[in-house]
User: Which sequence fits this backbone?
């Protein structure tokens, strides 16, 4: 058949095909593998949604979603074969520098939830207390190593173990610290009431991207249409997941019914949205400047060379012709192919106009964003301090570090009275200095205060503030530097200087200082007090028979029991070996003191269980009274020591008050 009729028929056929939607292309459904970086969890919600709702199938893909097992190397799994995709972190930069041809397709988590969780062992504990201890780190957690190195802690000083993905290992003391996600493991720690310390890289200014979808250069070179289709379907799944968390939780429970309870996934979903920030950033968006900053941070600590090229690492989701999707193909024969080319040309012309309009709108949006980024890029993406601007009594600008420092989201901060963030004891000072600054009066612009975190805890910060003109009116611009770790270190040093390292009780120096404060001033009167010297009976055989480790546990338990019996006003300390001291304030009469000593001896004498071994000790007590037996530290200490010797001489496991005759008795013995 000649003439225009075949072309017309072909165009009609094409029109019908466009109305009905794309038919299955000549290509069959392609099977690909997505490697997760952890076990099934809500952090992968978008991929489950894309699979369950058929988004992958509509894109011509059959996706096998595989969870990670202990020891899994997701990067190796992805680059080893075609058709493989994975979930990575900012450490993908390190993998690429190491020669693995990985390419970042889309960032899902704008902020990384990766943290280090440690067992809470004693007051004032810091990151440096992990040196020499057992730490489990999951693969792709180099940002944690970066934060440790920024604190001067080399990886070689830690005992690094493969991650078991089981929070119970930390709670049961199998390890001392483990990498975790704020969205995941914290649920189990909080539910169990487990005391833990959380160290976030963001407190050191390391605010990296979190979960990132990636593939290999080989996959992109050989199957560009498949990559575009997989990425688009995945992001579509994420859009659904964040809008329908309950439905996606149902999908996860159907996939892995024995992994976690529903409440866990609900907790995770609630914690996830603030890290993805779909309200502020398009899902999948990647900033080259942010990746540049991440690479530079790794370079600062020697994990990457300076100025590492990023060319080829960031996927370009928009081909040069402006079209971001793959056009379907049809088997229409020769005439049909001609018709398809003509029809496609017409459709592309209309599509180009539509794309041009969208691009113009996007240029306007990006121009505004670029202007904002130009002002605050360095401050918001690279600084390690919290930044803010206050105008008319309200916060109008905050950076991500401030949200981490306070625990409140950006939206919450912008609605709050900024003074409510300040500890009540410091609020008056901050208000007074702010008012003075507004009047132009001289006032310090740098000082230390306490902030109230969203969880109720306190954080010490250094506040720096100044005035500037903003939007035609005066505003306050300020920064908050987190001093909490420094304060904890200082407190720990003070604690170590005044406490016995084995039992945690006050040491001789602190007891002496407290006694000195309680003694009456020369020529004056003070409240009565009692000084008790306590010595364990026959303690040395325990060390000799069972070893010093058992002896140390006995001393720790005795210290704990002393604290349990005494009043809040009393003070128990360890002054060396198996010698303890108790300062009773106020002292009370002899009957009350004798009753107290009997309670102390009874609680010490209870059997002590240590790893299946049962040991028992008793105690002898010497008592000196102020002012009856002396009004200075040296006299009282000598009297209590003589009374203790008398108790030992009288058969042990008893208490004795000092009396002048003790000296004569001892003289008679010798």
Assistant:
């Amino acid at each position: 058949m000649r003439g225009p009729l075949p072309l017309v028929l072909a165009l009609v056929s094409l029109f019908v095909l466009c109305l009905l939607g794309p038919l299955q292309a000549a290509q069959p459904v392609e099977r690909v593998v997505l490697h997760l970086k952890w076990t099934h969890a809500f952090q992968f919600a978008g991929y489950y949604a894309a699979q369950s709702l058929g988004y992958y199938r509509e894109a011509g893909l059959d996706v096998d979603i595989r969870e990670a097992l202990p020891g899994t190397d997701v990067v190796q799994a992805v680059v080893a074969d075609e058709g493989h995709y994975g979930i990575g972190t900012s450490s993908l930069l390190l993998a690429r520098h190491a020669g693995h041809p990985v390419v970042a397709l889309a960032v899902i988590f704008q902020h990384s939830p990766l943290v280090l969780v440690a067992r809470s062992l004693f007051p004032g504990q810091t990151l440096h207390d992990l040196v020499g201890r057992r730490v489990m780190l999951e693969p792709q957690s180099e940002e944690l190593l970066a934060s440790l190195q920024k604190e001067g802690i080399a990886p070689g000083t830690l005992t690094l173990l493969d991650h078991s993905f089981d929070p119970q290992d930390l709670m049961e003391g199998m390890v001392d610290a483990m990498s975790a996600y704020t969205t995941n493991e914290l649920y189990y720690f909080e539910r169990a009431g487990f005391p833990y310390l959380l160290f976030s890289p963001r407190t050191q200014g390391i605010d990296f991207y979190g979960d990132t979808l990636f593939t290999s250069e080989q996959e992109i070179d050989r199957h560009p249409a498949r990559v575009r289709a997989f990425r688009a379907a995945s992001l579509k799944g994420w859009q659904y997941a964040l809008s329908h968390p309950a439905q996606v939780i149902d999908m996860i429970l159907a996939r892995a019914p024995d992994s976690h309870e529903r409440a866990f996934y609900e907790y995770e979903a609630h914690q996830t949205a603030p890290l993805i920030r779909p309200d502020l950033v398009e899902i999948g968006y990647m900033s080259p400047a942010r990746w540049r900053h991440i690479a530079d941070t790794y370079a600062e600590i020697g994990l990457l060379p300076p100025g590492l090229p990023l060319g080829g690492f960031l996927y370009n989701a928009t081909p040069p012709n402006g079209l971001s999707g793959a056009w379907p193909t049809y088997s229409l024969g020769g005439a049909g192919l001609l018709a398809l080319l003509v029809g496609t040309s017409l459709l592309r012309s209309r599509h180009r106009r539509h794309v041009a309009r969208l691009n113009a709108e996007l240029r306007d949006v990006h121009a505004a964003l670029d202007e904002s980024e130009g002002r605050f890029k360095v401050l918001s993406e690279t600084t390690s301090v919290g930044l803010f601007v206050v105008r008319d009594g309200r916060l109008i600008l905050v950076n991500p570090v401030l949200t981490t420092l306070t625990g409140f989201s950006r939206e919450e901060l912008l609605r709050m009275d900024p003074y409510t963030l300040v500890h009540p004891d410091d609020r008056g000072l901050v208000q007074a200095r702010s008012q003075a600054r507004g009047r132009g009066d001289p006032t310090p612009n740098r000082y230390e205060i306490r902030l109230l975190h969203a969880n109720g805890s306190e954080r010490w910060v250094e506040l720096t503030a100044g005035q500037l003109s903003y939007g035609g009116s005066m505003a306050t611009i300020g920064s908050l530097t987190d001093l909490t770790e420094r304060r904890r270190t200082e407190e720990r040093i003070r604690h170590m200087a005044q406490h016995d390292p084995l039992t945690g009780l006050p040491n001789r120096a602190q007891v002496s200082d407290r006694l000195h404060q309680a003694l009456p001033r020369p020529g004056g009167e003070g409240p009565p007090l009692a000084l008790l010297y306590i010595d364990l009976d026959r303690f040395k055989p325990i060390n000799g028979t069972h070893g010093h480790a058992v002896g140390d546990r006995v001393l720790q338990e005795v210290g704990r029991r002393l604290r349990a019996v005494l009043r809040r006003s009393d003070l128990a300390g360890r002054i060396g070996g198996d010698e303890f001291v108790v300062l009773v304030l106020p002292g009370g009469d002899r009957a009350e003191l004798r009753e107290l000593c009997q309670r102390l001896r009874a609680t010490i004498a209870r059997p002590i269980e240590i790893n299946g071994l049962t040991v028992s000790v008793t105690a002898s007590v010497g008592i000196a009274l102020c002012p009856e037996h002396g009004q200075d530290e040296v006299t009282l200490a000598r009297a209590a020591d003589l009374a203790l010797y008398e108790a030992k001489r009288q058969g042990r496991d008893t208490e004795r008050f000092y009396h002048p005759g003790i000296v004569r008795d001892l003289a008679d013995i010798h």
Confidence is low (pLDDT under 50) at residues 1-26, 320-352, 358-375.
